[in-house]
Here is the input.
Amino acid sequence: MEIKKMVVAYDGSSESERALNWAIDLAGKIRSDIVVVSVVKPPEFSPTVSEIEEFYEDGEKYFRPLLEKVEEKVNFLNISLRTEILRGHPAESIVRYAYDRRADLVVLGTRGNGGFKSLIIGSVAQKVVTYSKVPVAVIK
Here is the structure.
């Protein structure tokens, strides 16, 4: 399988940072492009459309500096990297984005809990693994 484009889910957590580092390392070895995506989840309840838009804008303000740091991190490496902020439910947005953009691999992190909890990966990761038509690498 040739991997020309990876989509990496990133939310700034240590788990997503590990997934990003893994993807950067792999991309450097195989000359793959990376698209790092962050997803602003809609509010559970909101009485007006303007409040929903404000919520999305606040989420984008939160993710923009995080993604700028990601861009700076790989700036000196010979890796093609883009960043995008998506709106919607995280798993659905990641799956749809990767499929629509014809990605070859989705990379995301999950918590590495021991015991019984290790059988249950994060809900977003579980949904991406379950519904993605694109191969998925879950980095623990």
